């Protein structure tokens, strides 16, 4: 147990390299980063993705607890939990024992965004697909497409690392992504319905390729 704690703290220090020490993190921030540590370690150590972790000193009313941006060639994983009483509302209906699993899936989702940014294909659709919309409608579709891709990365990650928990994660994501005024541009059921079970992700393919194969299929239904 002591060895595991030391490894976790060391990984948090490595991941939160922009902070002076892990002691600066709140309990909520530590819990979320610990839950997502395997994803972040994979992204930074194996994929060499340029990821920085930023902790907002004070969340704004419109901030989501976890988000990803891109600046100066680097991905910015932003935690907006301080002063945000609703930071963990998204987990309200999740049993306590499963919450780390859902947080891990959310972090994998954000890494999907980072991958798209780094590859230079953000808001780019594959050859042969047309935008089919203009103005605000086009902007909404662009966001939905990126969210759909990132959701599939989260599911592909879950199938690779926690296949026995796939049904729980996929069911929770479908619940969160149900079409509603709150979901808006984050309604991704066109893609989630393509992966009802882990069998949708054939073994042997890289994580992002697994997601991309299903994502391209979903593009046929989002115009």
Descriptive overview:
- Mean pLDDT is 87; it is low at 1-9.
- Helix 1 (2-15) crosses helix 3 (37-46) and helix 5 runs antiparallel to helix 8 (207-219).
- 48% of the residues lie in helices and 8% in strands.
- It contains eight helices and three strands, in the order αααβββααααα.
- Strand 2 and strand 3 form a beta hairpin.
- The protein is mainly alpha-helical and 223 residues long.
- The chain is globular, with a radius of gyration of 17 Å.
- It has one domain.
- A three-stranded mixed beta sheet has the order 1-3-2, with helices on one face.
SSE layout and pairings?
Layout: H1 2-15, H2 27-35, H3 37-46, E1 51-55, E2 66-71, E3 74-79, H4 99-118, H5 135-161, H6 166-176, H7 189-192, H8 207-219
Parallel strand pairs: 1-3
Antiparallel strand pairs: 2-3
Helix pairs in contact: 1-3, 2-4, 3-4, 4-5, 5-6, 5-8
Signal peptide: 1-22
Protein name: Peptidase
Keywords: Signal
**N- to C-terminal distance:** 51 Å
Largest sheet data: 3 strands, mixed
Q: Can you list the strand order of the major beta sheet? A: 1-3-2
Number of strands: 3
| Uncertain ranges | 1-9
- The share of residues in helices is 40-55%
Percentage beta strand: 5-15%
Rg on CA atoms, Å: 17 Å
Spell out the helices and strands N to C: HHHEEEHHHHH
Integer average pLDDT: 87
Count of alpha and pi helical runs: 8
**Based on CA inertia axes, which overall geometry fits?**
globular
> How many structural domains in the coordinates?
1
What class would the helix/strand composition place it in? mainly alpha
């Amino acid at each position: 147990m002591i060895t595991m704690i030391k490894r976790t703290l060391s990984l948090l220090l490595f991941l939160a390299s922009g902070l002076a020490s892990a002691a600066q993190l709140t309990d909520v921030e530590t819990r979320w980063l610990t839950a997502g540590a395997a994803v972040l370690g994979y992204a930074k150590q194996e994929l060499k993705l340029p990821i920085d972790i930023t902790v907002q000193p004070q969340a704004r009313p419109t901030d989501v607890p976890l988000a990803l941006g891109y600046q100066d060639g680097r991905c910015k994983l932003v935690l907006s939990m301080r002063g945000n009483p609703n930071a963990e509302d998204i987990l309200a209906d999740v049993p306590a024992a499963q919450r780390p699993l859902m947080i891990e899936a959310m972090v994998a989702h954000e890494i999907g965004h980072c991958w798209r940014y780094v590859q230079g294909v953000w808001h780019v659709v594959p050859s042969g697909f047309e935008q089919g919309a203009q103005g605000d409608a086009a902007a909404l579709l662009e966001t939905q497409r990126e969210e759909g891709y990132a959701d599939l990365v989260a599911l592909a990650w879950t199938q690779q690392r926690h296949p026995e928990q796939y049904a729980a994660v996929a069911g929770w994501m479908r619940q969160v992504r149900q079409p509603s005024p709150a979901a808006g541009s984050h309604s991704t059921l066109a893609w989630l319905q393509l992966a009802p079970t882990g069998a949708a992700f054939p073994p042997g393919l890289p994580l992002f390729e697994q997601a991309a194969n299903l994502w391209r299929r979903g593009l046929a239904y989002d115009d």
